[in-house]
Amino acid sequence: MPALRHADDLDEGVLALPGLPLQGRLLLSRRSLPGGYEVDDDRARVDRAAVHDFVCFHAYWALGRAREVQDELIETAARVVGVYRGAEQVGFCRAVADRHTVAYLADVYILPAHRGHGLGRELVAEMVDNWPYGPTKWLLHTADAHELYRSYGFTDPGVRLMERWPAGEGALPQAGDGPGGEAD
């Protein structure tokens, strides 16, 4: 069972769900995993440099993403969840959500040296199952983890789902984005 911390015990800047009333809410969770790992949704604990390094230089979906952009994405996310071994950030994901009907799972990764221990499953479960908006519709893009996400109830998109990809001047194409890319 996660160790839940009450909003009454937190500073306003530490909230995992910005804009929601503070009093009486359970906002942050932390739980130990086998092998000395820990999953935690405390935004203040995220090693932003480590997340940026992985996402910008090693993740097909965000190659070249600017540090300032990554920091803003972390800050404005509805929720962030990290996987840690001691002080080392070994995994991360974030959610973009309207808090009522839909949530988008993004920037999910576990460092290669730490894969094979079920950490990806724990990370995704913490995000989609263990937060106040778990029952909403979740969306994501992936090129290589379809089976992992299917085990959490994600399915191939139906005929009602459409996407609009950025185009033209100012658009920031990323590896795998857009029609015909590996993330399609």
Please tell me what the overall shape is.
globular
Average pLDDT level = 82
Secondary-structure element pattern, one letter each: EEEHHEEEHEH
Regions with little confidence, pLDDT below 50 for 5+ residues? 1-26, 175-184
Any idea how many domains?
Answer: 1
Report the top-level CATH class.
Alpha Beta
Distance between the termini: 36 Å
The H-level CATH homologous superfamily, spelled out, is: Gcn5-related N-acetyltransferase (GNAT)
Describe the oligomeric state of these chains in a short phrase: single chain
- Annotated CATH topology: Aminopeptidase
Biggest sheet character: 7 strands, mixed
The fraction of residues assigned to DSSP E strands is 15-25%
Q: What is the annotated CATH architecture?
A: 3-Layer(aba) Sandwich
Strand order of the largest sheet: 1-2-3-4-5-6-7
Number of strands: 7
Q: What level of helicity do the residues show?
A: 10-25%
The Rg value, from CA coordinates, equals 16 Å
Class inferred from helices and paired strands: alpha+beta
Number of helices: 4
Attribute tags:
184 residues, alpha+beta, Aminopeptidase, 7-stranded mixed β-sheet, 4 helices, 7 strands
Describe this structure in words.
With 184 residues, this protein is α+β, with helices and mostly antiparallel strands. It has one domain (3-150): Aminopeptidase (3-Layer(aba) Sandwich), CATH 3.40.630. Helices cover 20% and strands 24% of the residues. It has helices at 48-58, 67-76, 119-129, 146-150; strands spanning 3-6, 26-33, 37-40, 79-85, 88-97, 102-110, 137-139. A seven-stranded mixed sheet has the order 1-2-3-4-5-6-7, sandwiched between helices. A hairpin with a 2-residue loop joins strand 4 (79-85) and strand 5. It is globular. Mean pLDDT is 82; it is low at 1-26 and 175-184.
